[in-house]
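User: I'm writing a short report section on ligand binding and want a predicted complex to refer to. Could you take this sequence and fe (iii) ion and write out the structure as tokens? A short remark afterwards would be nice.
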Amino acid sequence: MTDLDAVVYGANELVVGPGDPLETIEDGAIAVIDGNVAAVGPTMDILREYPTENAAESIDATGRAVLPGFVDPHTHAVFAGDRSGEFAAKLRGKTYQEIMAEGGGILSTVHSVREADTEHLVANLLDHLDVMLAHGTTTAEVKSGYGLDTETELRMLEAIDRANEVHPIDVVPTFMGAHAVPDNAESTDEYVNCVVDEQIPAVAEQGIAEFCDVFCEEDVFSVDQSRVVLEAGAAAGLTPKVHAEEFTRLGGAQLAADLGAASADHLLHASGNDAEMLAEAGVTPVCLPGTAFSLGEDYADVDAFRSANAPVALATDFNPNCFSQSMQFAVALGCIGMRMTPAEATVAATVNAASAIDRNDGTGSLEAGAPGDLVIADVPSHVHVPYNFAVNNAETVIKGGRRVYD
Ligand code: NIG
Ligand code: FE
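Assistant: Sure. The structure tokens for the complex follow:
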């Protein structure tokens, strides 16, 4: 008997973690003990110390790339209903905001989610988590925000918690009662009061959510309203996150910096100054190129973040308006759309993404001591993941040293 969970060896390239250049090992191997990385190194050294016959799982990764499991730090993966009709409308020229103003968009999903029982929400989420896992995601944040009333927001968080219990992906829960203003609210201020006075205390009492997020946007929540929500969330133990500068430059990035948020997300209209403020405040900028891609918007300006030395993260933003669960696709868009280098995009989708959800325990890297979460990709290097876009390059996925997909 042994406590050696897994040995993966012979990798053409093993990506250990960030660095300039990326820290990689040729003909690399990794040993996982008790769920965590015990050692990485050249195959000969690792196999001498950790013989495959002692391992519960041993995998020959010859010709393949081994990467840290992807971390997806921004999703709205729990929902119900079908908004494919909006997809066609958008292709005919309707804007996201027009659809929202007509009561579609987020509000249409809200109606479906309020009608769905919790069992159904869990089942839907599990299906999406399966797709994420198959594409190499081993940790994912999931937001509530399609309930917009206390009971349904709590049920969404319960669904996230139940899915986390049974699924190999580590699911990180975010409360987002301030995702939109429900159509039965008297005013935005009245709804903000409901979020602050009713929803946040109930969410804190339920004890599932870790973060509190707000859609800080023209015609949704102003900077002041967002601040009120995030400060109430923080007082209840929920770390702030902000949907910032997506369609307009309203000041959400500055708010995220002021509040020391974990992340500011979207940032399509963020300025160089915003990037510097985020970097100084230690707020992770999260770029969601899939959203820009699906809406036909310009991508976020990665040069601004580079100049500010801000550790950009990538996420899918998987939701009914951006229907892709694949971090490989986000990485490809990070490269092809935003002109990130494959090394930058790989770091953005792993260790920087982990920072955006406060997982600073080595998650997103394969250094000794990090969680034993990795992807064996059927390509020779990390460069080939975005280079060979729009297919699934993940062959085997390991979570905590256990083979969970192949
Ligand atoms: O991050 N921008 C706001 N929220 C989501 C979209 C949610 C939806 O359309 O259902 C986003 O893109
Ligand atoms: Fe979002």
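A remark for your report: The pocket of fe (iii) ion (ligand 2) is lined by residues 74, 76, 243, 317 (CB under 6 Å). The chain has a mean pLDDT of 97.
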